[in-house]
Description:
By secondary structure, the chain is α/β, with parallel strands linked by helices.
Amino acid sequence: MFTINPKSSTPLVVQIVDGFRELIQSGHLRPGAKAPSIRQFAHAHGVSVYTVVDAYDRLVALGYFTSRPHSGFFVRQRDQASRRQAPQASESGDYSFDSMWYLRRVFEARGLRLKPGCGWLPGEWLFHQGMRRSLRSLAAEDVELGGYGEPKGFAPLRQLVRDALSEQEIAVSADQVLLTQGSSQAMDLVARRLIRPGDAVLVDNPGYPNMLFSLRFLGAKLIGVPRTPDGYDLQALEALVKTHQPKVFFTQPRLQSPTGSVASLAHLHRVVLLAEQHGFTVVENDIYVDLDPEPRPSLASLDQLQRVVYVGSYSKTISPNIRVGYMAAPPDLLEDLAQLKMISGLTSSEFSERLAYGALVDGRWRKHLRGLRDRLAEAHQRVAQQLEGLGFELFSEPEAGMFLWARHPDIQNATELAYKAAEQDILLGPGHLFDPDLEPSPWIRFNVAFTQEPAVMAFLREHGHTG
């Protein structure tokens, strides 16, 4: 078939991917041909099973392989595979939505018992008591549940969002607020309204996985803007803007996933100025605002929704299951987004919106937020100390929010460690999932609320240096 050289400076995973690509492109492996099983290939070439899994995963994401449950891996039809190129450091790649295979296989394995790589808080940390009181109140009311509800969402909740944004010095009317089924729908609506296939789109690198997959599906050309502990690599950002003339910049300035970093005021000013100078829209994903103990400016507060679309959510603090998010945008764009929301899914759930509203006006809501922030700060301090004690390097130490972004000097590819963890019922968040090009990465996202489990630290102590 082909040979791999363990003494080569080229990583084994890359050698395997390149070997299969050459066989497929030369016609030696025909469409529909079955690839060797993972264990068969590993045994024949004397490499780790995890290395082969990583290589096959990448071949699926690149469109050369397709995975069939219980059957194995097969060569994809040439008319699809031949259009894809191997990802380069300076390009975003042209991935099909098969990249979601990564997400299903590794990232959303909710069946695993321990979840230090997940993106939500433990159930006991959420506002369940407020939800129960809101539910009882709704049950006692004579609420009309027929029909579809208001296109923009439950009016009292939109007014509550308006008031919350006013506290953040973002001046909007309730008519400029659109309720959505979580923040993911909000960002998807903006993307479908503003982006066409081939458009250059700036994204955080590393960035928000769900958004990255959605943009690839729309055919956008993803341009990664490097994150720093203070926000952005401003020199790189300016060069990318001038070179690619992007349509949109999707970014998460505050308590960013996965790095936990917070963009400074100077960096926010620079982003707004570049958007004005070059005419692109900024979509500010601020879903962790309620987890931030510090009052900070936002892109929307600086821009006052001239070129910024502001996205928020209650799923992280009340409950992920209610799926209530919102956005605020310039009036004309907001009306287009409301129409697109109706076209794609009619109205959002008024019942869920009433439920969220009841929790938010509960007298214990602000006390819950204060307690949640304190709990997260304590978890940050504890987990940061433990990770550093194991030899991990931290990208930043926000002491707030949900995440720490860390790497170990002995780990070259965190995906291999993630597969080892899965065998022990542990979900990790390997760095390639957050990379716009799905490139292998040594970095790992840790959710501090779940990483405190003794079994997680025991696994990292035993395997962290062998990844």
